[in-house]
Structures are given as C-alpha cells and as structure tokens.
Amino acid sequence: AMAEGPPRGRTPSPGPGGAPGPPSPRTAAPPNPPAAASKWVRLNVGGTYFVSTRQTLCREPKSFLCRLCCQDGPELGSDKDETGAYLIDRDPTYFGPILNYLRHGKLIINKELAEEGVLEEAEFYNIASLVRLVKERIRDNENRTSQGPVKHVYRVLQCQEEELTQMVSTMSDGWKFEQLISIGSSYNYGNEDQAEFLCVVSRELNNSTNGIVKEPSEKAKILQERGSRM
C-alpha cells in the first residue's frame, strides 16, 4: 500500500532523524505587520481622529508626537482606544495647524482660530520652531492693532482769491490740498469783485499706541478754526 504523504498545505521540517519536528519559534510567532500598516498612525485627539505618517509626526525629534509614535515606551503612558488610535487629551480645534506645520513646514491659521490657542498647543507638543513662528505672528498682529487704522480728517475752508497764496502756505504738518471750488463773487470792494473759493484739505489722523488721538499742531489748529467758522 502506498504511504500517505503529509497533509496538503503543510511542510513540516525534518527532525534529527528525518522525522518531522515541532515548528520553530520563528514560524509560530505572529507575522509582522505590513509596511503600509506600520507607516500610518491614527490619533484620537479629544475625540476627533487624525491620520498621519510616522515620518510626519517625527519631523521634530524632540516633540511629544515623535516620542509618542516613534519612541513608543511605557514611560509615556501612551493609551490607545478600541480602534488602536493613540489617545491625546487635547483640544482638536487647534491640532490641525500643528499637524499641517509638521507636514509642510508652514504656519497656516484660519481666521476663526486664535493664535494664542495654536501657541498653547505648540508649547504642549514641544515644537520649538512652531512656537517661535506663532509668537512672531502674535507680535506682528499686536503691533498692527496698536497703531490703529489710518483715518482722514477733511476740512472745507472758505477764502477769497487774494488769500489763496496764504492758504496754501499754511498747509503744513500733514495737511494735504484736495480740491478748490469756486463759489462766485460774494463781496464787492470798490469797483472789483472778489472771487470766493472753497478749499478742501485733508490730513491723516493716526491713533497713538495708548489709544489717545494726537493733538494737531498750531498751524493745523488754525486750519481747523477757519473751517469751524463756516
């Protein structure tokens, strides 16, 4: 009778005498995960899921994310949820700019997000280069806010034809000539009519850093007083 061969699908390794031996420990160990599975990391940040690569998360070697995902150790206490995602008890609203910075190295913050919130998260995740960028952004915004928007003050001054030269000569300290409007002859001195004009001037009015409007200079006050007498 023909001897039956080993069951199909199994290839037992021969023992010392040619007999099949027990499977080696290497064969009995669970297979290694595919390279694609180990490349991607799933994060659960405050209940919101984010997916990224280990290469992205380890862009900053000293960051919390690098130590969590690339140097996974018991000292971090890296808990995972039922899906295998790393649990991070932080606000997910501000995590988007953090992750995008690690992806492409640029700081992009939506208008509805406060820079202070992104700064808080950058400091928590210990991303020093991002902390510097956010602080610079906050400092620039504060400087623009302290200067305040540029406002223009307009004055309409009435003068006679012979006063035009004097009017132009007094336009200093930031006052700028805008328009000259002829309103005809309102006065008659002897046999000559004196033409009347409306002179429109403007001046930029900047707010100082403490919110107090700067006082105009003496020549500017003269122009304002002439306009107020109209």
UniProtKB/TrEMBL annotation:
<dbReference type="GO" id="GO:0031463">
    <property type="term" value="C:Cul3-RING ubiquitin ligase complex"/>
</dbReference>
<dbReference type="GO" id="GO:0051260">
    <property type="term" value="P:protein homooligomerization"/>
</dbReference>
<feature type="region of interest" description="Disordered">
    <location>
        <begin position="1"/>
        <end position="36"/>
    </location>
</feature>
<dbReference type="InterPro" id="IPR011333">
    <property type="entry name" value="SKP1/BTB/POZ_sf"/>
</dbReference>
<dbReference type="GO" id="GO:0005737">
    <property type="term" value="C:cytoplasm"/>
</dbReference>
<dbReference type="InterPro" id="IPR003131">
    <property type="entry name" value="T1-type_BTB"/>
</dbReference>
<dbReference type="GO" id="GO:0097602">
    <property type="term" value="F:cullin family protein binding"/>
</dbReference>
<protein>
    <submittedName>
        <fullName>KCTD2 protein</fullName>
    </submittedName>
</protein>
<dbReference type="Pfam" id="PF02214">
    <property type="entry name" value="BTB_2"/>
</dbReference>
<feature type="domain" description="BTB">
    <location>
        <begin position="39"/>
        <end position="142"/>
    </location>
</feature>
<dbReference type="GO" id="GO:0043161">
    <property type="term" value="P:proteasome-mediated ubiquitin-dependent protein catabolic process"/>
</dbReference>
<feature type="compositionally biased region" description="Low complexity">
    <location>
        <begin position="1"/>
        <end position="12"/>
    </location>
</feature>
<dbReference type="InterPro" id="IPR000210">
    <property type="entry name" value="BTB/POZ_dom"/>
</dbReference>
<feature type="compositionally biased region" description="Pro residues">
    <location>
        <begin position="13"/>
        <end position="34"/>
    </location>
</feature>
